[in-house]
Amino acid sequence: MAFIFQKTGKPSWYIGYSIRGRRLQKSLKTTIRREAEKGLKEFLELERARRLGTLTEEYFLRVTNRGTKQPQARGYLEGWLEETKGTARPNTYSTYRSTINDFLQYLDEKQGVDMDLREVTADTIQAYLAHAKNVGRSAKTVNNRLKIIRIPFKRAHDSGHLDRNPAIMAKPLKLNKENTRHAFTLKEIESVLAKATPPWKWFVICGLYSGQRLGDVVTLRWNQIDTEKRVIRFLQAKTGNRTEIPIVQPLLDAVAELPTPKKTDDFIWPEFAELYRKTGSTSLSKQFHAILVECGLATPWEI
Length: 303
What we know:
The chain is mostly helical.
């Protein structure tokens, strides 16, 4: 009787079976149990057909789904995202989602049609990396996106959808040794605040005086602000650390200008928190960059 198993300390699944009393094993080239169970089912059906003398090429193709229409890139990648939703940490999943969604948006804009998975080549992915760099992403961020894109394409290769993993052949960008970022001057900050809408004025002031990341500021809730003790309590999404930040007077003045909350557990700016939940920092970074462009502190990103 055939069965599936994993070796100690190894993530891959194997089929174990016997032929004339000899115990054998075969790698299924997957780390996902559901795919391993599918492989076992195919193996059992083909073995049964072999014993009955009915194993034909047509039967083999029907059982293994080989020779059939390949999955489309969007459907496959969105399916992978859905499967990782229940296993990845929330912040990790958010990064996965923003990366895959941005990659799919690039494919839609450049190709105009939904591509088959096999049509996504190393050149396609390399062109996406160049595009991401051109619209203002750092080389480090772009390379992290490549690492994420490689995960579902490796799975597609391991499960037989692809003959090779195109993302492996795409080359990461060279990292600049020098950091070209600089801290804003007081005059530059005043210029940004003068151009910013009320939400962005709050994000800038809160980020300036708390030192927290944009995502943590955008997803701040009313019950995290204690004006009596003059502290803001943050749960940092990236590290999971809890921290209390003293509220200095300029930040306290900014809190006083915020809209009146309906419930204490509401987000301060719900629409921005929801946007961050859906897309990560990508869309918000674009908004902030547009403000910097308007202030003459940055150049427009190439599309």
